[in-house]
# Entry
Amino acid sequence: MVKRLNNHFSQNIGDLIFEKLTLLFAVSVFLLVILMGYEMYLGSKISIQKFGFSFLFNSSWDPVQEVYGALPIIYGTVVSSILSLLIAVPLSIGVAIFLAEVAPSWLEKPVSFLVELLAGIPSVIYGLWGIFVLVPWLRNSFEPWLADKFGYLPFFRGAPYGFGMLAAVMILTIMLLPIISSISRDVLKAVPRSRREAALALGATKWQSTLIVLKDAKSGILGASMLGLGRAIGETMAVTMVIGNRSLISTSLFDPSYTMASVIANEFTEATSQMYLSSLIELALVLFIITIIINAFARILVWSMSRKWSAA
Amino acid sequence: MPQNDIKISVKNLDAFYGKNKVLHNITMDIPSNQVVAIIGPSGCGKSTFIRCLNRMHEVVGGTITGSIMLDGEDLSKNDPVLLRRRVGMVFQKPNPFPSMSIFNNVAAGLRLNGVHNKKEISLIVEKCLKQAALWDEVKDNLDDSGANISGGQQQRLCIARTLAVEPEVILMDEPASALDPVSTSKIESLIFELKKDYTIVIVTHNMQQAARVSDRTAFFYLGELIEYDITKQIFLNPAKKQTEDYITGRFG
# Structure
């Protein structure tokens, strides 16, 4: 009797330790996020006290005068991310549809593999390719052509430097494409075959049955896009190498720009004064908060959509 | 059987998955406005056979030789999309579109076929849900997801969805095998009603079901059509020993 009780007791202890241990791991992730936020808040305290909200709305970033306003940098980050997302999402859905619905399996396997391979290439390599291939091509061919044909639009004016917003958007698009398309393909493939057969048996064409499958997959595709957006906002190396790195708000895509991640990477080593350093850390805090907001927003969107059709 | 009563005529049909031959030289005629049951043990090719009749077999990469005629026209010469609007199918596992409401599930086929008049759609949806004996149960929550009703209701929803396209033939692949007895009997009485307007081919594991609902029964074994006759004949006085063994439960 005693033995059995003991046994029972020790089993309970095991479960208890297991439970608390996993809880500890889970909580530590949470704490880490809070700690990081707090650390950054401490580091940027001087800057926050001096500039307050004008940090977000002032457009001059001037280390000589010790005035720091992040508006052009936030602008550059948001515009480059959103534009690249707008281009990458439809392309990626196209790639995903081809791989999941259209391609015969002998073609699907190698192409999927290549797409996933693209996702794994270090961003500095994309950046190098950007400097040596993309930027010269933009400067010599594509930007002059755009200026010639669409110069009446404010987006395609000014000197075609090559380095600038357009280069950053294009390189980000190329980097987002494999991420969004490979996740979207998995999402499409996860839609049961019975769904496609139901549509086909009703006399749907291949295209119509694909539309029905897309409807089932939309929350997953949305999630993939948000993941891509997070990547675009945080992408540092490749963007820094081609965006031109000037704190400037311009409607023209030919003009150089700057992103938060690029500023931090470029200027951290030169930040000699307290205020400079503090402002860079505040920039990191803003980037951190924006990323959290976007991710939270994406989660809520995906949740609410999947709850709606939960029985599926 | 008089020639003009034949809806589907199958001649020397062989069906393959890759190099694997799963149907051997099937020849049988399916008469109009009758229910034909296909019975046989698992893996005998029943499902493959009816999936040849609406060319769903080729969707999963299968091929056939021989000929299948629908109203005297060779299936392989027609567009499979148009064919499937004439030959509807109800699957073993209820497969409503979960991203659509009950109403839109039934309307889906209509919209695929280019019907967009709202009034016309809602009339047809109501008619088909009534025909499928589901209307009274769902008429107050037509906007709910098609996946949030019971399995039996889902299957009747799928039948309504099939009816909405106004097919001439309805293929049913073990439509009641995933359902409880009450839902099963509802589906069976539905089949009985539907044969006035449609030709029905039903695959079933359940011999009592075949005996209850069908006019004719075909017994498949190992990819071959062993015997095909009036249902009564098959069950009371089968010509082949294999059929008798199967029906009396000696194997299968």
User: Anything to note?
Assistant: The CA atoms of residues 98 and 147 of chain B lie 5 Å apart. Strands of chain B lie at 6-17, 20-31, 35-39, 62-70, 73-74, 87-90, 169-173, 199-203, 216-221, 224-230.
